[in-house]
Structures are given as C-alpha cells and as structure tokens.
Amino acid sequence: MPDRDPQLLDANTRVLGIVPGKPAAGDRKVLAEDDPVMVWPHLLVRHGVAALAILAVVLFLALSFDAPLREIANPTNTPNPEKAPWYFAALQELLAHFHPLVAGVLVPGAIVIGLVALPYIDRNPSLSPNARRVARTAFTVFLVVWIALTLVGFAFRGPNWGWVWPWQEWHGEL
Questions:
Q1: Are the C-beta atoms of residues 81 and 171 closer than 8 Å to each other?
Q2: Among residues 28, 30, 126, 170, which is most buried (max CB within 10 A)?
C-alpha cells in the first residue's frame, strides 16, 4: 500500500480496498422510536415499493376489466340530463337548488374562507386529534354534506334533472 499521511487517517478510517478492521455490524446503532431516519434509502425505498405495488394493482385492474369508450361527441345531440363529472356533481346539485351566484360563488367561497379560518377559530395548541373537536366537527360536517351532494347529483338525477332511484331503469347515461 502507498504511504499514508498519519494526519489524514486515524484507526477508524476506511479506504476503498481491502483493509483490516472490525465488521460494520458491530458498530450498528439500535434506533429508538422517535430517532430520525435518513430519507435515503429508508423512506425512498419504501415509497418505491409502494408505488410499484399500486402500479401492479392498477395494471391488473386495467387488463382485467373492460372500460369501453362511448361514441364520438355530437354537439347536436346532448344527453338528458347533462351531468357534470362526479367531482363537480355537488356544485351542479347546488345549482339545481340555489341561484347561480349563491351556488357557484358564495357557497364555495364560504367553504374556502371557513377552512382557511379554521386554525384561527380552533386555537387549541394540541396536535392530538382528540383535542381538536372544532376542527374535526367542521371538517366532518363539510365532508358528509359534500359526499351526500355528490351522490345525489351523480346517482339520483335522471331526465330533466328529476329524482330517479338507482334501481329504476331509465335509458340515459350512468
């Protein structure tokens, strides 16, 4: 081996190559529950494995079930009822019951302002969900109402925006 500079290397320094020394497994530290963990490789490897597993499940579902496309869009023949995509079905349901200014601007604006103001309303410094009752209640009410409006707008509306039970047969799009 070439001569080493004793000021640069000490007894625990390892260099590229075969060197005598004790194995690294003896130096391994046992981590406590709240010790920080390095992002690479611990977190990124887990995320990569989870992403590959989800990709495999989605690929399996895509190959197993058929999702046919409908005919080419015809602007002269619109379906009855004309429905928004599911993620806008709650807003479309609100538009069926309220003035467009109220349903399209005031209600969504109030929801956004309310969610932004929620940390200022619920001033509890605790991070435990059990201690944040105001935030939990507000978010739960918002979520239940939004899911209910989405389900009604998407699954229970038929021709001329009338009420149709899901088990009733009507010849429209689902």
A1: no
A2: 170
Helix (H, G, I), strand (E, B) or coil at 163: strand
Query: Do 136 and 129 touch, CB atoms closer than 8 A?
Result: yes
Angle subtended at Cα 93 by Cα 91 and Cα 99, rounded to the nearest 5 degrees: 80
Q: How far is it, in rounded angstroms, from Cα 92 to Cα 150?
A: 9
- Weakest-pLDDT range from 62-66, 81-85, 95-99: 81-85
For residues 165 and 111, what is the distance between their CA atoms, to the nearest angstrom?
29
Q: Where are the domains of the chain?
A: 37-68, 86-161
Q: Which two tokens stand for residue 73?
A: 């869009």
* Separation between Cα atoms, residue 135 and residue 115, nearest integer Å: 9
What one-character DSSP code corresponds to residue 156? S
**Span 37-77, pLDDT tens digits:** 777 888 899 999 999 999 999 999 999 998 887 778 888 88
What's this model's pTM, rounded to 2 decimal places? 0.55
CA 21 to the chain's CA centroid: 49
Helices (H), 34-166: 44-64, 89-97, 100-101, 107-121, 133-155
